[in-house]
């Protein structure tokens, strides 16, 4: 497991999402390895946030809430895939993080 | 040099084959009075259009997995006529659309001038059936409905 110092972006995302959403469940996956970027990059992330704060909010608003919290990170990272669920929705789901679609080579364009 | 030539030829090819996929360079010429990437400019691009996709690359050659996923969804639902804008060709548009939608990532899908979502939301809507309904609202019958009919 990489230390916080080695993964500052992931550590920051984890901290901010935890503080803001007090999630029942939180997954943060650095998917940069799937792209043509230097090894150890922190540029593509996938997050699963399960929180009561999403209750009665349409999905687009949930995404906006996450984007807002991570607005500083979003200035530097290339991709952020979001799954924002309520605890009930998470219970009813397959509870898997999933995987983003394969890269098409345009990461640095 | 070779790459540049290839790119230019590709973009010429695109213009001639699929007129619906407009390059932003052309658009800028047509809308000189409007500042590129401005709210007014983007409003013109999306207003009264059934489906508009802002993406990385073109429907024939998506340059990003998320953009490709949206193109695949359109194909799956039989949406043939939609306008697409390649933000990699125009940084002003790339920044402009992010500001207009208050949405930090590409792709972005608009229907009838309304922001629908990015790749994750489109995939969610596809999975839960909402995409069929959303397309219906702008007068597009999803091909999925006919697939279901055939199954019956």
From TrEMBL, chain A:
- What is the residue range of the signal peptide feature? none
Q: Where is this region: Disordered?
A: 89-109
Query: Membrane-crossing residues?
Result: none
Q: Which InterPro entries match?
A: BolA, BolA-like_sf, BolA/IbaG_stress_morph_reg
Matching entries from Gene3D superfamilies are given as: BolA-like
Source species, domain of life: Eukaryota
Residues folding into a coiled coil are none
Q: Name one Pfam family in it.
A: BolA
User: Which family, according to the similarity comment?
Assistant: Belongs to the BolA/IbaG family.
Q: Which PANTHER family match?
A: BOLA TRANSCRIPTION REGULATOR, BOLA-LIKE PROTEIN 1
From the Swiss-Prot or TrEMBL record, give the protein name: BolA-like protein 2
Automatic annotation (TrEMBL), chain B:
One Pfam family cited in the UniProt record for this chain: Glutaredoxin
Q: Which residues form the Glutaredoxin domain?
A: 51-116
Write the record's keywords in alphabetical order, separated by commas. Answer: 2Fe-2S, Iron, Iron-sulfur, Metal-binding, Redox-active center
Q: Name one GO molecular function term.
A: metal ion binding
SUPFAM superfamilies to which the protein is assigned, alphabetical: Thioredoxin-like
Cite the PROSITE patterns for this sequence: GLUTAREDOXIN_2
Query: What Gene3D superfamilies has UniProt attached to this entry?
Result: Glutaredoxin
Q: Name one GO cellular component term.
A: mitochondrial matrix
- The molecule here is called Glutaredoxin-related protein 5, mitochondrial
Naturally occurring in which organism (per UniProt):
Ridgeia piscesae
Show the taxonomic lineage: Eukaryota, Metazoa, Spiralia, Lophotrochozoa, Annelida
